[in-house]
Specification:
The chain is α+β, with helices and mostly antiparallel strands. 29% of the residues lie in helices and 33% in strands.
Length: 199
């Protein structure tokens, strides 16, 4: 069942982003199962009803997390069609830090079409706007070329290398650390009259 555009938190020409709901369980897990070859060995999103219920519950209820579904817009009606992927902000810290860590994944039917580039950019804008975050980080395994390309395309810069950072698929994995701040994003965008916003 399509989701009406009023449920968007932000939208671009081809996608809208909205929060996870428990009602997305069946479509999300079906997309994960269709996308195993694309995701492995980098990503292991929930592929069963029980796993999704727990996963979405954390994103919905935990104030240190925020989950977003990237949904392809129907060109005829403007309603949201298939879920193209997801972007999660984890480890959100407020106060003097105002930072979060991004994780994301595309589904197989949407891969290579630029939908996640648009969706990630929308989530970054939402995080720096309504969520009032100042800095976002992406930790990605060095061999994950598609994820690195997406981070770079959205303006993130490589800041460092973290050996044995995360336990994934049975082993501690090295990660590259990419980051973006409000100021970096603002300076990379063309000015359209008037001063840039100050925080």
């Amino acid at each position: 069942m399509p989701h009406h555009a009023s449920r968007y938190l932000a939208e671009g020409p081809r996608v809208g982003v909205r929060h996870f709901t428990q009602e997305d369980r069946a479509e999300f897990t079906a997309r994960v199962r269709e996308s195993r070859e694309l995701h492995r060995p980098w990503l292991f999103p929930p592929d069963s009803a029980g796993a999704y219920t727990a996963y979405a519950g954390r994103l919905i209820e935990d104030p240190t997390k925020a989950g977003f579904l990237v949904c392809e817009k129907d060109p005829e009606s403007g309603d949201v069609g298939a879920i193209a992927g997801f972007v999660n902000i984890n480890n959100i810290v407020q106060g003097g830090f105002q930072c979060g860590t991004l994780g994301y994944g595309s589904f197989a039917h949407a891969a290579g079409r630029g939908l996640m580039r648009e969706g990630l950019d929308l989530v970054v804008g939402f995080a720096f706007g309504r969520m009032r975050l100042h800095r976002l980080e992406i930790n990605v395994q060095p061999g994950n070329a598609a994820s690195i390309a997406l981070a770079r395309a959205c303006g993130f810069r490589l800041e460092g290398f973290s050996p044995d950072m995360l336990f994934i698929d049975g082993a501690w994995r090295d990660h590259e650390r990419w980051a973006l701040t409000v100021e970096m994003r603002d300076s990379a965008r063309p000015r359209r009259g008037g001063p840039r916003r100050k925080r």
